[in-house]
Amino acid sequence: TVLSEKPTTFTITVTSEAGENDETVQTTLKFTYREKYPDETPLYEIISQENLEDNDVTDIIKLLEQQAEENLGMVMIFTLVSAVQEKLNEIVDQIKTRREEEKKQKEREAEEEEKQRFHGTPVTIENFLNWKAKFDAELLEIKRKKMKEEEQAGKNKLSGKQLFEMDHNLDTSDIQFLEE
């Protein structure tokens, strides 16, 4: 867009190629020709930018300075804009790489967290003996409660084995029943 004729001032909007998820970075450059252009560098500035960080803007300004100095004596606007275009494409690639690294880092952290979840206490003789003592105490407590409940309910029933041990007539009762 031409802004004025004397001195010649115009803007050019430079957009990167679409990255992942159609993300782009964009900047609008304003150029003003000096009287002795191209033997003298044009005045340039970034008047707007989109999705760029401050350090990216600084890098673009440095790139413009370097390219302008290298191209003194030649028409250079196309070269400057091309250099900025390449830089914007690099920035999009860096954003993509940064996101991939973040994703990989999150996956690594999730994997480590998963490992930690399945990694229990290492078993040593001391740990086992402590656990065994607690476990035996819990079993003994459960047996005591069960016996108290049976006593309170009045259910002092004997098991089959106990019945046979007490009354030896039961040893032959099945045989007598079958004979009859």
From TrEMBL:
Composition-biased stretches (Basic and acidic residues): 99-117
GO cellular component, one term: cytoplasm
Keywords: Acetylation, Phosphoprotein
Domain spans labelled RWD: 1-91
UniProt-annotated stretches for the region Disordered: 99-118
Gene3D superfamilies: 6.20.400.10, Ubiquitin Conjugating Enzyme
CDD domains per UniProt: RWD_RWDD1
Top-rank lineage group of the source organism: Eukaryota
SUPFAM superfamilies: UBC-like (SSF54495)
Functional note: Protects DRG2 from proteolytic degradation.
Annotated family: Belongs to the RWDD1/GIR2 family.
Name used for this protein in its record: RWD domain-containing protein 1
Native organism: Casuarius casuarius (Southern cassowary)
Gene name for this UniProt entry: Rwdd1
